[in-house]
Automatic annotation (TrEMBL):
Source species: Streptomyces mirabilis
Protein name from the UniProt record: Enoyl reductase (ER) domain-containing protein
Transmembrane segments: none
Keyword Protein biosynthesis: no
Domain Enoyl reductase (ER) stretches: 18-332
Keywords (A to Z) from UniProt: Oxidoreductase
Coiled-coil regions listed in the entry: none
Superkingdom per UniProt: Bacteria
Molecular functions (GO terms): oxidoreductase activity, acting on the CH-CH group of donors, NAD or NADP as acceptor
């Protein structure tokens, strides 16, 4: 390849859902490294729900993407050139400059990954930020116990599917998931071992959760917000723990969500609702890998990937992700 391809933010989304017109695809010269840098040819790049928030200029926990600049996120790439001892051409590295075919990466921000130890894609998913999010949210933040009934919204997604499996592996009394199709519900129960699951499109979430959790829930891992959060508050037992990972339902409507309308029950039930970001827990990464990597290798922890081919299809993959078209981790393979 004699040129590089970049995907840039051309305009900020006017509504909750971005469009293809919000990005531009530009061909440029392959960059050259400076001191302390690597030129990396990306092999696999990640698309994630949090990227929607960064396309807005609104104040958020992460800096907004700049107009006219490349959208960036997690990526695995092959080193083509290096000006740094310890990195050689042919090495594979994890870094944060995705949504482009080639990147100049500061070596101090990259970490080597072993393609022989696990598939490269797993370092962006089950063995990467996705897996660490599930692990820390459930076990470190919620401190889930074997006696707990755990409810996971968006349970067929990259994070949710791992949360449910980890809860089962840790001995949870009952694990319940919500998803957006009959096929996904079947996958949660038949393939991933959830005790119960339901399609949130089939009826009121509160009613479906009550039927799935007749004895209430002790832990709620929230990826959706809105009606799901209201339902979880309704089903919560005293002193239940709510881990707030994301609220993808807010991306789907131009209007603020009507739910939850039962917030006063947080008081009576003495619930704990805690937002968390995986970036606050990177210190647990080695412990996480030591515990989770063997589970993956032994096929005790399953992971799913939705792979899209080609850098130019990245924007559509992102839009599909926001609409729930993925099962497990959404990735683009270059």
């Amino acid at each position: 390849m004699s040129s590089a391809t970049e995907i840039r933010l051309a305009s900020r989304p006017a509504g909750p859902q971005p469009t293809l017109e919000n990005v531009s695809i530009v061909d440029v010269e392959i960059p050259r490294p400076g001191p302390g840098q690597l030129v990396v040819r990306n092999v696999v790049i990640s698309v994630d729900p949090y990227m929607r928030g960064r396309m807005s200029a609104a104040k958020n926990y992460a800096e907004p993407y700049e107009l006219g600049k490349v959208v960036h996120g997690g990526a695995i790439g092959e080193v083509l050139e290096s000006t740094v001892d310890g990195y050689r051409p042919g090495d594979y590295v994890l870094h944060g400059l995705g949504w482009r075919s080639h990147a100049v990466v500061d070596a101090e921000t990259a970490s080597t990954v072993d393609p022989d130890a696990a598939p490269l894609s797993t370092y962006l998913g089950v063995l990467g930020m996705t897996g660490l999010t599930a692990y820390t949210g459930l076990l470190e933040v919620a401190r889930s116990r074997p006696s707990d009934t755990v409810f996971v919204s968006g349970a067929a997604g990259a994070v949710g599917s791992l949360v449910g499996q980890l809860a089962k592996l840790k001995g949870a009394k009952r694990v319940i998931g919500s998803a957006g199709s009959a096929d996904k519900v079947k996958h949660l129960i038949s393939d991933l071992g959830f005790d119960a699951a339901f399609n949130y499109k089939d009826g009121p979430v509160t009613e479906q959760l009550e039927a799935a959790a007749p004895d209430g829930i002790d832990v709620y891992f929230d990826n959706v917000g809105g009606e799901h959060l209201e339902a979880a508050i309704e089903a919560a037992n005293l002193h239940a723990q709510f881990e707030m990972c994301g609220m993808v339902s807010l991306h789907a409507s131009p209007e603020p969500p009507a739910a939850p309308r039962n917030l006063m029950k947080i008081v009576g039930k003495r619930l704990t609702l805690r937002g968390f970001l995986v970036g606050d827990h990177y210190g647990l990464r080695q412990r996480f890998l030591a515990e989770v990597a063997p589970l993956v290798k032994e096929c005790k922890l399953r992971y799913e990937e939705t792979l899209v081919e080609g850098i130019r299809n990245t924007p559509q993959a992102f839009l599909d992700l926001l609409k729930g078209a993925n099962t497990g981790k959404m990735l683009v393979r270059l």
